[in-house]
Structure formats: structure tokens, C-alpha cells
Amino acid sequence: MPIDLEVQSVTKTFGDFTAVEDVVFEVPQGQFFSILGPSGCGKTTLLRMIAGFTEPSRGKIAIRGADMAGVPPNRRPVNLIFQHLALFPMMTVAQNIAFGLQRRKENRSDIQRKVTRILERVDLPGFEDKTIDQLSGGQKQRVAIARCLVLEPAVLLLDEPLGALDLKLREQMKVELKKLQAQVGTTFVYITHDQSEALVMSDHVAVMNKGRFEQVDTPQNLYHQPRTAFVARFVGDNNAWSGVVRRCDGETVEIETAADQSFRTRITTPLEPGAPVELFLRPEAMIIQPDADLPNLNRFEVIVKSLLFDGANSRLLAHPINDETELLIALPQNRQFDHIRRDDRIEVAWDEQSGICFPAAG
Fold first, then answer.
1. Helical H runs in the chain?
2. Which segments in the chain show pLDDT lower than 50?
3. What pLDDT, in 10s, does the model give residues 190-223?
4. pLDDT at 30
5. Checking DSSP bridges between strand 315-320 and strand 297-308, what pairing results, if any?
6. Is the same domain home to 76 and 205?
7. Does one domain contain both 142 and 52?
8. Which of 82, 154, 276, 344 shows a CA-CA span of 20 to 30 A to 287?
9. What is the distance between the alpha carbons of residues 307 and 264, in angstroms, rounded to a whole number?
10. Last residue of a domain, one of 184, 213, 233
11. Which helix (H) or strand (E) covers residue 301, if one does?
């Protein structure tokens, strides 16, 4: 598959501060690629280098095989959409979309044909004469995308474009953006701090931390097979314990937590007895009141502190006996636990293959 975007060992420094450090990745044609990370991790600086607003201190950026060194933003085959869409309020939808084509001095009949076609592709046929203030938030998003796509960029860059929307519209637009990208086939590079956006929409996600990529993978692998403690902590909800390795047995270890609990779990790298570790466990991996004959389970008792009702995403907030570590425990939909109340003492368990253990930071 042809490569639309290639980033080779790109670094960006500002004085003594390194904003982006030795980042390497490539995006095949037609993929939805997201860069996910907390505020200040360097993702927007990286996007600005791809767009041409900032030059790398070191490294190379190539778009469809062409080196972008020294190429100004208006000469690059990319377009950039920000959180604030910058649509022209005094113009109609058609005039907004046609703006870039007019600056290219394309003829009027071609512009009209391209505007009509792109509005159909973003599911806004017949919206040519509407003003921007007549549109919903989601329709404005699609007009902003159409204004970029009509210029036929090799790569569309999106810098947290859903951040200004309310929660319900943001959830709706996640699905719409994914469908739209699949429909038009343009390569999307999407920047976000919202892990739900990245997981729902992307073919591949790069998790960024302190200027570096911690892991580049499919959403499924990031969630189920994180390679670092940061990825395990940042992607999705996780329960976490600190502890020390007591025994090693191949790809599993027995750890003792700071509260003297003993758990068996899998590891990602070889560990020695005495090594400090961090253990992570997803809320949905917890089994409430497990059957007595289930094997290979870590069993312990907890005290229920709260029931966090959220329909299909309802959870218990609890802590182990003689331990104030807060635990999130998902309530499965195939069993009823309506009898559980605050301050109840219940048994929970998890399979030793469900947790994942990393060497402690530092």
C-alpha cells in the first residue's frame, strides 16, 4: 500500500526544551491515524511540523514520497482543521467551500461542480445557499472538512476538531467522522487528548508522552496489550497497584502489594524477585462473587463504597479490606447485582492472565 505520510526521526527543540524527540512513523494511503496524548506532550507541535508552520530541528517529513524540507504550508499537499473551524460567517456554505478553489483561480463551472460533488460526499446536498449560522455544530464540522477535501489534499490534518462540541454531539461526530473518512478515502491524521475519540475512529493510534511515541498500534492492541505503564494508565480505565515481585514462573509472577495482598499476573518483560512493579487491571476483568470452582483466580474481599450507575457502563467503587486503594469494578449486563449496597462486603476475583505488570517507573 502506498505511503501518504512518512516521518523519519523528527525532533523539535525550543532552546533547551525538547518538544518532540526522535518520532518515527508512517501512514499508508487511506488510513485514519490518530496521535493521542495529554496536553503538553508535543502532539500539536508535531502536527504543525507536518503542516509546514514549524520546521523540524532534525529529521525528515515526506508526503507521498516528496521531502517537505523548506516547502511552505501553502505548497504542501495537506490541509489543517483546528478546533475553532474558522468558517467565514458572512459567506454561504458554497462560498466557504469554494474559497480555496477561487484562490487557485479555477474556472467557475469547475468550482460549482466540485462544490456540489463534495457536499454530496459529506451528506450535505442542497446546502449551498445556507449561511453558517443556519447550521448545527455537526453540519459546521462537515462544511469545514468539505472545504479542505475539495482541494484534494494527500493528507487531512485535524487538531482536536471536536473539542468545542457538547458531549452528545461529540459522541455523534466520532461515528460520523469515521464513516466520512471511510467514504472519501482521504488519509486523516487526527490529534486528540481524548482516548475514546482515538479508539473509536482510528485504524492505528500513536500514544505520545513527553515528546516521544510510547506505542503505535491498533486500538485493540493498545487496550488489551499495552507495552508500557504509561499506555496502560492512559488508554482506558485501569485499577493499579504498586508492589514487589516475590516469585517468578515463566511469563507470570507473584507480586505482593503495599497492602500485603498477593496476586499472580502476567508480565511483559522478564523480572527478578525483589523488583518493584506496577500492576494494572481493567474494571471489566473483575468477577463479582465468583463461583468457588473457577481456577487460576486471584480472590479477595472488598467493601463497596458507591454504586456508579451509568446504564450499561455501571460500576462499583470499592476498596479491599484493610486497604484504601480505590477499585473500579464493572457490573456485567448478563447478571443482576441489584442486591449490592454501600458498605457491603463482597468477594471479587480476577484471572491471572487478565492483569498486566510492568517495572515501576524509576
1. 43-51, 93-103, 108-121, 137-149, 167-184, 195-201, 219-224, 229-234
2. none
3. 999 999 899 999 999 999 999 999 999 999 999 9
4. 94
5. antiparallel
6. yes
7. yes
8. 276
9. 28
10. 233
11. strand 297-308
Among 189, 187, 233, residue whose Cα is nearest residue 209? 233
Nearest partner of 225 among 241, 240, 236, judged by Cα: 236
Residue 186, domain member (yes or no) = yes
Any idea of the CA torsion for 344, 349, 354, 357, to the nearest 10 degrees? 80
Distance (Å, whole) CA 154 – CA 300: 54
Question: For 281-293, what is the HEC assignment?
Answer: ECHHHCEECCCCC
- What are the phi and psi torsion angles at 47 (to 5°)? -65, -40
Cell of 299: 480472590
Identify whether 209 is part of a domain: yes
Q: Based on the fold, state whether residues 155 and 9 are members of the same structural domain.
A: yes
Of the candidates 205, 233, 261, which is a domain's last residue? 233
Question: In this structure, is residue 360 part of a structural domain?
Answer: no
pLDDT tens by residue, 235-263: 989 999 999 999 998 888 999 998 889 99
Full residue range of the structural domain in which residue 38 is found: 3-233
Has residue 359 been placed in a domain?
no
* DSSP letter (8 states) at residue 131: B
